[in-house]
Task: structure prediction
Amino acid sequence: MLCCLGLVPAHDSLAHPVEPCLARLSQLSVTLKDCELHQVEEGQCGSSRARLDAQIALCKQQQFTDQAINRGIDYGYASLEGDVGQSPYRRQVRKQQWENSLMKPNLIRFGRLFPDALHVHESLMERFNTQACPKQYAGKSDRYVYFDVVTLTQYPTSYDELAPEKYVYHFFAPEKKGVCYAPDAGPAAVDASAAGPRVVNIPGYFLAELEAADRVKVVRCASGDCAAEKTALADLYDQYSQQYRHHRQLLICSDIEQRNDSR
Result:
């Protein structure tokens, strides 16, 4: 009587499959949805999905149309209440996607600065959005903030030596426990000429990898913002440049004197 009055539940508007293949399809779709409603990790419902897919293939072999197959699946899904989108796993996926969008600027900057260090990206995503540091990274003593890079030239000391060599200096400051670090870092994150951090939450092992490279120097700053260390390096290089110019003048004078003596 309820059916005739149009007062049936929503899922009853779908006809219960009577064919064995489609009826089994509905049962398997219920099993899959039940799993998905309580899913907590990726792949947890893989076996349920595989059984449903196998039954779909079997029904197609028995010449059931796609429309009939979909109706069978829909009936099973509708017979079990609940929103799969609110499962623990789906909520965690959405949370991770949201966090990834917030971390993206930091990851992009690191990738541009160190394109060959993609293996570090997973570590860069750790310690983010903790209870103490919402939407930020939680500082730790073995994590570093990257401030700047300086390339200096070492010139040959004699005519017999090869071309000048370039040395790259990377400036890092250790993070502080209890301090939160924003993924957008600071002004240098947008303008490379500006002062301030460029990348945060860099693991200590990456600094060791950099140091192992040829003609690469890692400066671990004690000043907190690396300003003092950069100034000290600039002063030393100015002294070196002056001494080198003096050395070159002596080489030129010595060369002229030797040529005069050979005449």
In short: The two ends are 126 Å apart (CA to CA). Residues 1-13 have pLDDT under 50 and may be disordered.
